[in-house]
Specification:
About 50% of the residues lie in helices and about 20% in strands. The protein has about 375 residues and is an alpha+beta fold.
């Protein structure tokens, strides 16, 4: 095809797309108007329609028989208006009260998300009389804000609970230490246990800080090219002493030239947590293997980092939940081995922040394999064999 013909075809396609878009838009407008205006609308105060059209929150004007006289575009997209009626009884009740006594009302309501399934939306509704016969409803979606609030409250409650254990233990140990001032052997024992509790406390505080940072708005502010080999080496190094103490051998197979785009510190933290878990949960004289391999095919290309252990494995029923904050299969055992219950939540956040994922395979009595999948850095894909 010559250049002129290509240009002509492209122009025609553009024109048709524009025409279709305009037709579709006006059809949806008409449908909305048909929804909103089943009969000629009663008189609305001047300018109201104009204001409704630009409002961010859902706005609906009802007549004396609860018919929708006018609604803002968001009221339709939010799903509170359908076929010229308000769907949620909770909103209608509020509107009727305002119509009866003319008083402005505001309420936080849980309204059904749809006709089926029992799901709900949290909304803030403000209702006011409009002229002598109409009622204006302004409805703001608070569902996401509510959810975030709940998550935050849960987190604070969990952290406080987790902090109580080491802080309480340290208070008791310091009392015991005072009582045992004349017994050097007991002093040594209590001081040692205080050190353990202090280490646990600082581990927990560090994990909380890491997780809060990761949950901030921009997980990857200045991504850089990161060599996975170096990340794996540092992550393994962090658990070297703990592994030696249990005669656990950590094997590592990572090619030198695999590079991902991201934050090296975060990746070391995530992989470090997986290796630490593998060592912590495994019995003495076992093996932990860390491997890096490129997943062939697929777009974008991925790399997989796997951490495999010969530990006790994880019951199938718990697999889905272990990435939740503070979820532990055996809480007492996790605490005793120095766990915070936040390790895997951190791994998950790092993976998501890098456009990747973390998954787990596990069989009780055999062991577990955690797999961190990350997009390969596009710039150097060619160099990697
Ligand atoms: P913890 O600090 O308790 O290890 P994590 O979030 O890192 O918290 O892990 C959550 C739970 O998942 C752990 O309490 C443990 O029950 C289980 N788990 C994690 N990694 C392993 C593993 N390699 N082998 C067996 N269980 C594991």
């Amino acid at each position: 095809m010559d250049a002129q013909l290509v240009a002509a075809v492209a122009g025609l396609v553009g024109l048709l797309t524009g025409v279709f878009a305009t037709l579709a838009f006006s059809a949806s407008e008409k449908e909305q108007r048909a929804d909103a205006d089943p009969k000629p609308p009663p008189l609305m105060p001047p300018g109201v329609a104009h204001v409704l059209a630009v409002l961010r929150s859902s706005a609906v004007v009802l007549d004396e028989e609860d018919n929708v006289v006018r609604a803002s575009p968001t009221a339709y997209s939010f799903g509170i208006v359908r076929n010229g009626r308000i769907l949620a009884d909770e909103l209608l009740d509020l509107a009727r009260k305002v119509r009866r006594d003319g008083e402005i009302r505001e309420a936080e309501l849980e309204i059904p998300r749809g006709p089926l399934g029992g799901g709900t939306l949290s909304v803030l509704a403000r209702v006011a009389p409009l002229g002598s016969t109409l009622v204006l409803l302004l409805v703001e979606d608070r569902t996401e804000a509510r959810r975030v609030d709940e998550v935050r409250r849960d987190f604070v409650a969990n952290v406080s609970h987790e902090l109580k254990t080491p802080v309480g233990a340290m208070a008791l140990l310091s009392e015991a230490l005072l009582d045992a001032a004349d017994d050097p052997e007991a002093v040594r024992r209590f001081a040692g246990r205080m050190q353990t509790e202090a280490a646990r406390l600082s581990h927990l505080v560090q994990d909380v800080i890491d997780l809060s940072r990761l949950q901030g708005h921009d997980p990857l502010r200045a991504p850089e090219q990161v060599k996975l080999h170096d990340v794996v080496a540092e992550a393994v190094d962090r658990s070297r002493l703990a592994a030696e103490a249990k005669s656990i051998h950590i094997g590592m197979a990572a090619p030198e030239n695999v590079v991902v785009r991201g934050d090296a510190q975060q990746l070391v933290m995530a992989l470090g947590n997986l290796v630490e878990n593998a060592v912590r949960h495994s019995p003495n004289d076992t093996r932990v293997s860390v491997g890096v391999r490129r997943v062939v095919g697929g777009s974008p290309e991925l790399v997989e980092v796997t951490v495999t252990d010969e530990g006790p494995g994880i019951p199938e029923g718990d697999l889905e939940r272990i990435f939740e904050r503070f979820y532990r299969v055996d809480a007492a055992r996790s605490r005793n081995t120095g766990g915070t219950g936040l390790g895997l939540a951190i791994v998950k956040h790092v993976a998501l922040g890098h456009g990747g994922e973390v998954t787990v395979w596990s069989a009780e009595g055999t062991g577990s394999t955690f797999t961190l999948r990350l997009p390969l850095a596009a710039a150097i894909t060619e160099e990697i064999a």
